[in-house]
Amino acid sequence: MTTDARIPLSRERVLRAAVQLADEHGLRALTMRRLAEELGAEAMSLYYHVAKKEDVLDGIVDVVAEEINDAVARVEPSPDWKRTVRERILTARQVFLRHRWAPALFETRSSASIAVLRYYDALVGLMRDGGFSYDLVHHALHALGSRALGFSQELFDPGASASAEVPAELAWQLPNLVGMLSEIAHEDPDSTLGFCDDQTEFEFGLDVILDGLDRLRERA
Amino acid sequence: MTTDARIPLSRERVLRAAVQLADEHGLRALTMRRLAEELGAEAMSLYYHVAKKEDVLDGIVDVVAEEINDAVARVEPSPDWKRTVRERILTARQVFLRHRWAPALFETRSSASIAVLRYYDALVGLMRDGGFSYDLVHHALHALGSRALGFSQELFDPGASASAEVPAELAWQLPNLVGMLSEIAHEDPDSTLGFCDDQTEFEFGLDVILDGLDRLRERA
DNA sequence: ACCTGAACACCGTTCAAGT
DNA sequence: ACCTGAACACCGTTCAAGT
Q: CB distance A183–B134 less than 8 Å?
């Protein structure tokens, strides 16, 4: 989907096109040459608007982070810190569902973008107002990890390794896993997303942590 | 550090060299050409022992996973499930500290290696014996995420963005973050690893989750 | 059976040159 | 000021050829 070549390039146009390219064809398709093609320009033209590819990657992280900030800004605060924080995080998660490549990329960035810092700043403020000490907020951010931003990279999807996919010769080595999977498959035979409902699992993990943090806050 | 060229290549030698190369120079240095050079061979020779680069990456994930399995096998079980699981996870973490590139790579693998599955199988068994239903174990694995395997990718290290590094013009946009960081820096002026002690934070987050899971187990 | 040289299709990036 | 062509140093990988 090559766009009109008459519109002049700009950093913003480049970044928008990069996000769209990643949305449609994944991060691997995001090469400088392909990106330029998408914009109806030559690869070398991009370098007038961005320093290098890393700059593009930093840029699209920022674009997504701004999208998150816009989304969570519409969440109306509640007197209950946990309710507000929970809703903000689930709202942020919706943005990541629109940009499936983003979690992996966010984790490769070493220095946080300004937009990400603003996101965290608001979170810190909400928890502080909810009765947390700065010290506990700090621990809380580490405990939440990427969940605070709205995603949780699944290392191993128990559902993806459903019993059917495990070769019989392997099964005997994994009695507990096989047992667990067969029971789950039995109990929830028609889950839409395979055996594990990502949304349910994300909320489960999030609530375990938020509840735990709330208990620590009360005790302190 | 080129090794003796007279020793014939083998899949195992290739993978060992790949791990060592990543340990010493990072994942980015792990190219087929460089790897071959390290082994005193030509890049094309590698393809007789591995299918493609992805195969090498799958392979070194497996090597690390086996290293983890060896390490946790030496953890002696306790009647308290939480104690045992906690110690196993912290033991696994030690392995990741020796292979800093591994967390990022583990997260890019879509299908889990057999060794990783064995690790999870043992974990499932321990929790099941500790009184968990299969269903709760399943939720627990999702809640722990990569922490179950012994690492937690930090998206944004609050310590890395210490107040000193935040430009003054940005600080006013981040009042809560700046407040939090200045207090933490003040309270813990001489932490070795910067402002955040990774080990402490990892254990904090792990304990929040394990305690939460234990409470859910009791209630069920 | 195991290893290699030459070659291909791709990268990101520089630099001098065009308008 | 903005864009481009040619070129460079790298990738992973194929394939026919060597021993």
A: yes
Phi and psi for B133 in degrees, rounded to 5?
-75, 160
Look up residue A32 and give its two tokens.
Answer: 């400088």
| CA-to-CA dists, residue B133 to A217, B81, B126, B187, angstroms | 29, 13, 11, 42
User: Would you call A125 and B175 a contact, using CB atoms and an 8 Å cutoff?
Assistant: yes
Q: Is B111 close to A161, i.e. CB distance below 8 A?
A: yes
Comparing every residue's Cα with the C1' atom of nucleotide C14, the nearest one is A44
**B49 CB neighbours strand C below 7 A:** yes
Interface test with A, best of B107, B208, B211 (most A CBs within 10 A): B208
Rounded Cα distance, A114 and A126, in Å: 19
Q: For residues B146 and B168, give the distance between their C-alpha atoms in angstroms, rounded to a whole number.
A: 36
Strands (E), chain A: none
Q: What is the distance between the alpha carbons of residues A42 and B217, in angstroms, rounded to a whole number?
A: 60
B169: Cβ contacts below 8 Å, ≥ 6 apart:
none
- Closest to A107 (Cβ–Cβ): which among B139, B155, B158? B155
- To the question of pTM greater than 0.70 for the whole model, the response is yes
* Residue type for position A100: R
Cα(B140)–Cα(B211) distance, integer angstroms: 11
A32 touches strand D (CB under 7 A): no
Is B200:B142 a contact under the CB 8 Å cutoff?
no
Report the alpha-carbon distance of residue A131 to residue A85 in Å, rounded.
Answer: 13
8 Å CB contact of B124 and A180: yes
> How many CB atoms sit inside 10 A of residue A105's CB?
17
Alpha helices (H) along chain A: 11-25, 32-38, 43-46, 53-73, 81-98, 102-108, 114-129, 134-144, 168-171, 175-187, 198-219
Nearest to A142 among B108, B110, B201 (CB): B201
Instruction: Report whether A92 contacts A71 (CB < 8 A).
Output: yes
- Tens digit of each residue's pLDDT, chain A (220 residues): 555 556 899 999 999 999 999 999 999 999 999 999 999 999 999 999 999 999 999 999 999 999 999 999 999 999 999 999 999 999 999 999 999 999 999 999 987 789 999 999 999 999 999 999 999 999 999 999 999 999 998 887 766 665 556 677 788 999 999 999 888 876 665 544 345 668 999 999 999 999 999 999 999 8
